[in-house]
Specification:
nucleotide-binding; P-loop_NTPase; GTP-binding
């Protein structure tokens, strides 16, 4: 089994790393006490799971001493165990906790007899956590995320875990403006400026997937020009979204009723990009 163990300082990106592995098909467990690692591996192994990712932090302080031994035993059993230790400088950690307005995990701990009003400050919590994790810092690959963007961290985690990046899925969706713009759209194109087949009584019952409507719209210079402009825009910016580690990109094309022009455009765009991309086309106003 491939086992990726993620540990390190709170606020350094453990959740980002765990999410990357979850998206890659790993069975993920957060904040697992180290003594439970061997039985967890046994349980998921019996279920046929071949990829496991586990995050461990300083809240398991008393049992962290068991972690090196547990890792060694798993390797002896033939498991491929990879350890990532994420850290960051104190200045960056303070800024991140301030931005998210979340409390440090150790801020809720009290020493025996300690007054609840005298909880540790954020700086004290970070220092305490560094001390607790100092013994396991050199167990695996150290990643300093102080000046690292979340996007770059995702890429590094994929490389270290040998995870292939899932290809971006390009969604083309037709819709009717009279019903409303899709909330999940990344880009919205309005094709209502194109002549409307609806006003031809023979075309009205049809849709943008029917040959007579297609012939009508292909004969319109404005339809061809708009189609080309939309193609060029998507082709220009699609590489940037891939670089940004996007899993999908939704392009919504709207007309008045969502039956003719938008359907035609979505179908033509999907056909064009399906030669090189993973494409899904859907028509919101059609049953």
């Amino acid at each position: 089994m491939r086992i990726v163990l993620i540990t390190g300082i709170s606020g350094s990106g453990k959740s980002v790393a765990l999410n990357v592995l979850e998206d890659a098909g790993y069975y993920c467990v957060d904040n697992l006490p180290p003594p439970l690692l061997p039985p967890l591996v046994q349980a998921v192994d019996r279920d046929g799971t071949d990829k496991l990712a586990v995050a461990v932090d300083a809240r398991s302080a008393e049992s962290l001493v068991d972690l090196p031994g547990n890792i060694a035993k798993l390797k002896e059993q033939g498991h491929d165990v990879r350890v990532m230790f994420l850290t960051s400088n104190t200045h960056s950690l303070v800024a991140r906790f301030s931005e998210t307005r979340r409390s440090h995990p150790l801020s809720h701990e009290l020493h025996p007899g300690e007054n609840p009003a005298s909880r540790r400050t954020l700086i004290e919590c970070i220092a305490e956590e560094r001390e607790r994790l100092s013994e396991i810092e050199n167990l695996g690959h150290l990643i300093d995320t102080s000046e690292l963007s979340a996007n770059k961290l995702r890429s590094w985690v994929r490389e270290l875990a040998e995870v292939e990046r899932a290809p971006l899925t390009l969604y083309f969706e037709s819709f009717a403006f009279k019903v409303g713009v899709p909330l999940d759209a990344d880009f919205v194109f309005d094709v209502r400026a194109i002549p409307n087949p609806y006003y031809d009584l023979t075309l009205r019952p049809l849709t943008g997937k029917d040959a007579p409507v297609i012939a009508f719209l292909e004969a319109q210079p404005s339809a061809n020009e708009m189609l080309q402009d939309i193609r060029n825009f998507i082709a220009k910016w699609l590489p940037s979204f891939k670089t940004d580690n996007r899993s999908y990109l939704t392009v919504a094309v709207g007309c008045t009723g969502g039956q003719h022009r938008s359907v035609y455009m979505a179908e033509r765009l999907a056909s064009y990009f399906s030669a090189t991309e993973r494409v899904v086309v859907r028509h919101r106003e059609q049953a």
